[in-house]
Fold each of these.
Amino acid sequence: MLRWTLTIFLSVIILSAALPWLQKVGLGRLPGDVRFRVFGREFVLPFASTILISLIALVIGKLL
């Protein structure tokens, strides 16, 4: 359980850092992605994008 929690946490951090590049493709603006602004700074939690990329990686892993 701890391994999955850590994996999801790291995925969210990586996707948040890569969000400017991924927005050009359409990721980061899915209905499950949370965006909010606090004290003039924008925070993004790309939950739906993380799940989508995880599913794509799972399918690729199963095929290979």
Amino acid sequence: MALPNKKSKTAVFLINLGTPDSPNTPDVRKYLRQFLMDRRVIDIPWLNRWLLINMIIAPFRAPKSAHEYKKLWTEQGSPLMFHGVAVKELLQQALGDEYKVVLGMRYQNPSIESAAKELEAKGYNKVIVVPLFPQYASASTGSAVEEALRVLGKWEITPHIEVISKFFDHPLFIKAFAEIGRKYLAERNWDHIIFSYHGIPERQIKKASIGDQCKLGTCCQVYGSRNEYCYRAQCYETTRLLVKELGLAEGSYSVSFQSRLGKTPWIKPYTDHNIEELGKAGKKSILFFSPSFIADCLETTVEGGEEYKLLFEEHGGKDWQLVESLNTNPTWVECLKDMVVSKS
């Protein structure tokens, strides 16, 4: 006699980077310490990293970062947090009762561990882990997956785990960003369009290179199996797909990388240098995309929307427009649903 078919119980584990609990200096310092002590984020020997973070960065950078977070904070709190909670709820509605969606942050609250506790007692025998970083990098997706596997691996009954490690080229991801950008393209003819991605140190690209493939040059202009997990190559591929979706002309846009920290070489070209050159070249209006962020945060709202605007104006520019992140865009929620269902 055949046993009755018991439907599996599937959990969806959304993971984003994280945010301080408040924009006050002690909470920002706590966040920076946890974030930057991650070996995948600052990949130098432990003692050197500890001294750098605890003796230099956390004491001196925290007050400045707290000032920046106060510009970002709203009555609802951090945009990264309240948009994350909203997307979790929207995805839950889209998937229905056959799934349970939770949200955890790699750093600070709600932690990956606390989110996993919501699932452990419920008997979920399959967990789909979705790091909310479009392009794979060791310092973002790699770190989130490592922590999720560590936490889920402590369950007495280890669930079947599926990981969505990248979605930079998913048609609905591209469509969602294009939907948001298209409304600004309809308003006027922009002199130039920048696609700016979060930077990472060049050494991290080389460490992840298969067979010494990556030369940090024109090899990123073509995306394929040999550079499948090259972060820089994925960023260029995202740009190519967005350019096609938006119908942009060659020469009307550029790709660059922002948010570098320290004096070691990061992947190039640098966004701030790009902006200076465009201003000096007589460009007066720029539309600014940040397609490595799925929710607005310091890097989009403050760095991309305010600091780069001032930099552009200082070098002769006039009109600057930030294209907001996906946040709660319905097509973005549909993209998440499609990815989850494909792993179910």
Amino acid sequence: MFLENIVNLIVESGAVPALVRHLQAPQLPEELVTGPRAYEDEVEKGSAFTLGLLAIKPEHQQLIVDAGALPHRVALLKRHKDGQSSRAINGAIREAADAII
């Protein structure tokens, strides 16, 4: 009951739209991309993981879908399929698969 109350408070505070925005790495101009995307991957992974934790109730799941999370999660799956694999993306893939099911 306590955990459910905390999750409700987080969802009611507007966390879902903020997390969904961070499921997609910011688009940077090519000249600004100088190294690996480690931090962006971690932000995407953390956002996907947190959304998974918030999705304990059907109404939260629907809110996450309505906020547009699925296309971003599918994009993570496609990126992995294209060979851009990392530990962060592998975790996000599990989250994306859970959301789609």
Amino acid sequence: MGNRVLRTMDTIPVPNSSREILLTNVDPDTSQHQASLIVFFLVLQFIGLFGGIIIILTARFYSPIQRHATWYNFMLSWVISSISYTLLLFGGQIDLSGDSKGVPFGLCVLQSSVIYAAPPLSAAAVLGMVAQIWFSVHLTLFKKPFKSQKLLTKLLLILPYVLFVAISAEALAFGLAQPDSVRVAGSGMYCNSGLAIPGRISAGIVAVVLFPAVIIEIFLVVSLRKHWDVFKSPGSNPSRTNGMLHTIIRVFLFSIFGIFALILSVFFFFTIHHGAALNIVISIIPVVAVCIFGSQKDLVDAWMFWKWDWVKKRRLTHSRTVSESDSTLGSPISLYDEKDLPPLPA
């Protein structure tokens, strides 16, 4: 295939232009191919996929806690991400031997489009959940919601999917315009593009979206430290306070990986070949999300089949209250006035 410059419609060369660099088709680095790493990568993606689905279904149908839609968005984003990275497997086109020349173009260009959209989708879902926690803390501290909070919440709920569709369409357009650039990555794990521009757009958007999430978390830490007496005052609701604090701790733990993802997004902005080992690191993030948010007490209780009668009784008794020991973004009664609550998932 060789290194080639893909010319645009205009034939006038642009001196010292970065456009040629962005539109240069780079061959895959097949030295990254290792069958054991491919299997490990797919196992991690399967844990993120099916673990996320189980957690969502359990929270929706078997938990006494009514979670906020931003929490479901967050978990669903990792399910979609894992699906994106396993399309080649579901299409029966994973070849551990390294011979991937027979992959259908339609499947490959589809996956090469959605894998660039998955990171911004997850980043926007993280931002939505962090912002919703900040709304809840603000309401607890100052007894009033943010101005335009309902509108902001709705925008944060749809932002991940707007980004996903837009970036998928952009990457698909590049793939259809330059079909030679669509190929199985050198690692053999998934299809991607040999062009730099889809990856740079994706990495740049991830950085832009995660940056305000980090800033909000800093505000959360400062506010909690400054107003800790409000959370622990005798007049506060222990169930609501404990649930909120447990959720904040979980989000902070996961945010360590979010900051790591922010650093990776900057790295990806400048490179196409980032190595099979780094793909493994990236695939650990959905597993971390499953472990951190799937270990909430109400979900674990629902999986303890020997306690199912007790869980059922608890659900009937506390169907719209927050667990005393562990919660998520909580029930509408505990965190919001009903009129301030954005629509919950059906």
